[in-house]
Amino acid sequence: MPRTPPGQTRERIFRFVRDRLLRGDSPSLREVRDHFGFRAVETVRAHLTALVEEGRLDREPGRARSYRLPSLPRFHPVPILGEVAAGGFEEAVENPEGILPVEISDSRDLSDFFALRVRGESMIGAGILPGDTVIVERGEPRSGQIVVALVENEATVKRLHLGPGGVVELRPENPEFEILRPPPDACRILGVVVELRRTLGTRWRGRP
Protein backbone atom coordinates (compact mmCIF):
# COMPACT_ATOMS: atom_id res chain seq x y z
CA MET A 1 0.00 0.00 0.00
CA PRO A 2 1.47 3.47 -0.89
CA ARG A 3 2.66 5.58 2.01
CA THR A 4 0.24 8.26 3.22
CA PRO A 5 0.67 11.14 5.70
CA PRO A 6 0.58 10.15 9.42
CA GLY A 7 -2.97 9.63 10.63
CA GLN A 8 -4.50 9.48 7.17
CA THR A 9 -4.27 5.70 6.91
CA ARG A 10 -5.92 5.27 10.30
CA GLU A 11 -8.69 7.64 9.28
CA ARG A 12 -9.31 5.63 6.10
CA ILE A 13 -9.42 2.40 8.14
CA PHE A 14 -11.90 3.97 10.56
CA ARG A 15 -14.18 5.07 7.74
CA PHE A 16 -14.05 1.65 6.11
CA VAL A 17 -14.87 -0.15 9.38
CA ARG A 18 -17.51 2.43 10.32
CA ASP A 19 -19.31 2.10 6.99
CA ARG A 20 -19.33 -1.70 7.28
CA LEU A 21 -20.64 -1.52 10.85
CA LEU A 22 -23.40 0.88 9.85
CA ARG A 23 -24.51 -1.72 7.32
CA GLY A 24 -24.61 -4.29 10.12
CA ASP A 25 -21.52 -6.16 8.92
CA SER A 26 -18.45 -6.18 11.16
CA PRO A 27 -15.33 -6.78 9.02
CA SER A 28 -12.64 -9.27 10.06
CA LEU A 29 -9.00 -8.27 10.47
CA ARG A 30 -8.12 -10.12 7.27
CA GLU A 31 -10.82 -8.31 5.32
CA VAL A 32 -9.41 -4.97 6.44
CA ARG A 33 -5.90 -6.15 5.61
CA ASP A 34 -6.91 -7.27 2.12
CA HIS A 35 -8.89 -4.10 1.42
CA PHE A 36 -5.91 -1.86 2.19
CA GLY A 37 -3.20 -4.18 0.93
CA PHE A 38 -1.32 -4.57 4.21
CA ARG A 39 1.16 -7.43 4.48
CA ALA A 40 0.34 -8.35 8.09
CA VAL A 41 -2.84 -8.62 10.14
CA GLU A 42 -0.93 -7.11 13.07
CA THR A 43 -0.76 -3.79 11.22
CA VAL A 44 -4.55 -3.74 11.11
CA ARG A 45 -4.79 -4.77 14.75
CA ALA A 46 -2.47 -1.92 15.79
CA HIS A 47 -4.61 0.65 13.97
CA LEU A 48 -7.86 -0.72 15.42
CA THR A 49 -6.40 -0.82 18.92
CA ALA A 50 -5.44 2.84 18.56
CA LEU A 51 -8.97 3.67 17.41
CA VAL A 52 -10.37 1.94 20.51
CA GLU A 53 -8.00 3.93 22.73
CA GLU A 54 -9.18 7.12 21.04
CA GLY A 55 -12.79 6.18 21.81
CA ARG A 56 -13.79 5.95 18.14
CA LEU A 57 -14.44 2.20 18.27
CA ASP A 58 -15.42 -0.29 20.97
CA ARG A 59 -14.23 -3.88 21.18
CA GLU A 60 -15.94 -6.91 22.75
CA PRO A 61 -13.15 -9.18 24.06
CA GLY A 62 -13.32 -12.87 23.22
CA ARG A 63 -15.44 -12.45 20.11
CA ALA A 64 -14.57 -12.68 16.45
CA ARG A 65 -15.42 -9.57 14.45
CA SER A 66 -15.50 -7.84 17.81
CA TYR A 67 -15.26 -4.17 16.85
CA ARG A 68 -18.33 -2.00 17.33
CA LEU A 69 -19.26 1.66 17.12
CA PRO A 70 -19.45 3.18 20.60
CA SER A 71 -22.86 3.94 22.05
CA LEU A 72 -23.71 7.56 21.40
CA PRO A 73 -24.68 9.66 24.44
CA ARG A 74 -28.16 11.11 24.44
CA PHE A 75 -29.96 13.55 26.68
CA HIS A 76 -32.40 11.83 29.03
CA PRO A 77 -34.70 13.27 31.71
CA VAL A 78 -33.35 12.73 35.22
CA PRO A 79 -35.64 13.44 38.22
CA ILE A 80 -34.66 16.19 40.68
CA LEU A 81 -35.56 14.62 44.03
CA GLY A 82 -35.07 17.63 46.30
CA GLU A 83 -32.15 18.87 48.38
CA VAL A 84 -29.11 17.33 50.03
CA ALA A 85 -26.97 18.90 52.75
CA ALA A 86 -23.34 19.77 52.17
CA GLY A 87 -22.70 20.26 55.86
CA GLY A 88 -23.77 17.93 58.63
CA PHE A 89 -26.52 15.41 58.24
CA GLU A 90 -29.98 16.69 57.44
CA GLU A 91 -33.24 14.82 57.13
CA ALA A 92 -33.62 13.24 53.70
CA VAL A 93 -37.06 13.91 52.29
CA GLU A 94 -37.71 12.92 48.69
CA ASN A 95 -39.56 15.86 47.18
CA PRO A 96 -39.64 15.62 43.37
CA GLU A 97 -39.10 19.03 41.79
CA GLY A 98 -39.10 18.23 38.09
CA ILE A 99 -36.55 16.84 35.67
CA LEU A 100 -33.11 17.73 34.37
CA PRO A 101 -31.82 16.72 30.90
CA VAL A 102 -28.56 14.78 31.33
CA GLU A 103 -26.29 13.28 28.68
CA ILE A 104 -26.26 9.53 29.35
CA SER A 105 -24.94 6.76 27.12
CA ASP A 106 -27.47 4.23 25.88
CA SER A 107 -25.40 1.53 27.58
CA ARG A 108 -26.22 2.96 31.04
CA ASP A 109 -29.39 2.31 33.04
CA LEU A 110 -31.38 5.54 33.13
CA SER A 111 -33.13 4.50 36.36
CA ASP A 112 -29.77 4.67 38.20
CA PHE A 113 -29.60 8.47 37.85
CA PHE A 114 -31.17 11.23 39.94
CA ALA A 115 -30.39 14.84 40.80
CA LEU A 116 -30.30 16.83 44.05
CA ARG A 117 -29.89 20.51 44.84
CA VAL A 118 -27.05 21.27 47.28
CA ARG A 119 -27.51 23.20 50.52
CA GLY A 120 -24.47 24.06 52.64
CA GLU A 121 -20.79 24.91 52.27
CA SER A 122 -18.85 21.82 53.29
CA MET A 123 -17.85 20.88 49.72
CA ILE A 124 -16.74 24.25 48.37
CA GLY A 125 -13.14 22.99 48.08
CA ALA A 126 -14.38 20.48 45.51
CA GLY A 127 -16.19 23.22 43.60
CA ILE A 128 -19.65 22.26 44.90
CA LEU A 129 -21.41 25.43 46.04
CA PRO A 130 -24.76 26.09 47.71
CA GLY A 131 -27.48 26.11 45.08
CA ASP A 132 -25.62 23.78 42.72
CA THR A 133 -27.34 20.66 41.42
CA VAL A 134 -25.48 17.35 41.53
CA ILE A 135 -26.30 14.44 39.25
CA VAL A 136 -25.90 11.15 41.08
CA GLU A 137 -25.54 7.60 39.77
CA ARG A 138 -26.45 4.63 41.93
CA GLY A 139 -23.75 1.97 42.11
CA GLU A 140 -20.85 0.60 44.10
CA PRO A 141 -18.67 3.56 45.21
CA ARG A 142 -14.89 3.64 45.49
CA SER A 143 -12.86 5.31 48.19
CA GLY A 144 -12.08 8.88 47.17
CA GLN A 145 -15.28 9.50 45.21
CA ILE A 146 -17.81 12.20 46.12
CA VAL A 147 -21.00 10.50 47.21
CA VAL A 148 -24.44 11.11 48.64
CA ALA A 149 -24.65 9.19 51.91
CA LEU A 150 -27.70 8.31 53.99
CA VAL A 151 -27.41 7.69 57.73
CA GLU A 152 -30.58 6.97 59.70
CA ASN A 153 -32.73 8.91 57.21
CA GLU A 154 -30.33 11.84 57.13
CA ALA A 155 -28.39 12.66 53.97
CA THR A 156 -25.24 14.53 53.10
CA VAL A 157 -22.82 14.94 50.20
CA LYS A 158 -19.18 14.23 51.07
CA ARG A 159 -16.00 12.59 49.82
CA LEU A 160 -16.00 8.93 50.81
CA HIS A 161 -12.97 7.35 52.49
CA LEU A 162 -12.97 3.64 53.25
CA GLY A 163 -10.46 2.61 55.91
CA PRO A 164 -9.30 -0.74 57.30
CA GLY A 165 -11.89 -2.88 59.02
CA GLY A 166 -14.80 -1.28 57.21
CA VAL A 167 -14.30 2.16 58.74
CA VAL A 168 -16.31 4.77 56.84
CA GLU A 169 -15.36 8.44 56.80
CA LEU A 170 -17.35 11.15 55.05
CA ARG A 171 -14.85 13.94 54.50
CA PRO A 172 -15.75 17.57 53.78
CA GLU A 173 -13.83 19.77 51.36
CA ASN A 174 -13.87 22.74 53.71
CA PRO A 175 -11.62 22.95 56.82
CA GLU A 176 -14.42 24.59 58.82
CA PHE A 177 -16.34 21.30 58.81
CA GLU A 178 -15.52 18.08 60.65
CA ILE A 179 -15.11 14.61 59.22
CA LEU A 180 -18.21 12.49 59.79
CA ARG A 181 -17.65 8.92 61.00
CA PRO A 182 -20.97 7.07 60.97
CA PRO A 183 -21.16 3.41 62.05
CA PRO A 184 -20.56 1.24 58.95
CA ASP A 185 -23.80 -0.68 59.39
CA ALA A 186 -25.75 2.58 59.66
CA CYS A 187 -24.34 4.25 56.54
CA ARG A 188 -25.81 3.71 53.10
CA ILE A 189 -24.28 5.24 49.99
CA LEU A 190 -27.10 6.36 47.71
CA GLY A 191 -24.82 7.04 44.76
CA VAL A 192 -21.76 8.73 43.32
CA VAL A 193 -21.77 12.33 42.13
CA VAL A 194 -20.98 12.20 38.39
CA GLU A 195 -21.85 15.70 37.22
CA LEU A 196 -22.45 19.21 38.54
CA ARG A 197 -24.83 21.88 37.24
CA ARG A 198 -24.77 25.56 38.18
CA THR A 199 -27.26 28.24 37.26
CA LEU A 200 -25.81 31.59 36.23
CA GLY A 201 -26.80 34.41 38.53
CA THR A 202 -26.78 32.28 41.71
CA ARG A 203 -23.03 32.24 42.21
CA TRP A 204 -21.94 31.78 45.84
CA ARG A 205 -19.84 34.69 47.09
CA GLY A 206 -18.64 33.18 50.35
CA ARG A 207 -18.77 34.84 53.72
CA PRO A 208 -18.02 38.54 54.21
Give structural notes.
Helix content is 17%, strand content 33%. With 208 residues, the protein is of the alpha+beta class. The chain has 2 domains: 8-68, Winged helix-like DNA-binding domain superfamily/Winged helix DNA-binding domain (Arc Repressor Mutant, subunit A); 73-197, Umud Fragment, subunit A (Ribbon), CATH 2.10.109.10. Helix 2 crosses helix 3. The protein is elongated. The mean pLDDT is 87.
Protein topology:
Elements: H1 8-22, H2 29-36, H3 41-53, E1 58-59, E2 67-68, E3 73-85, E4 90-91, E5 99-105, E6 113-119, E7 133-137, E8 146-151, E9 154-162, E10 168-171, E11 187-197
Parallel strand pairs: 3-6
Antiparallel strand pairs: 1-2, 3-5, 4-9, 6-7, 7-11, 8-9, 8-11, 9-10
Helix pairs in contact: 2-3
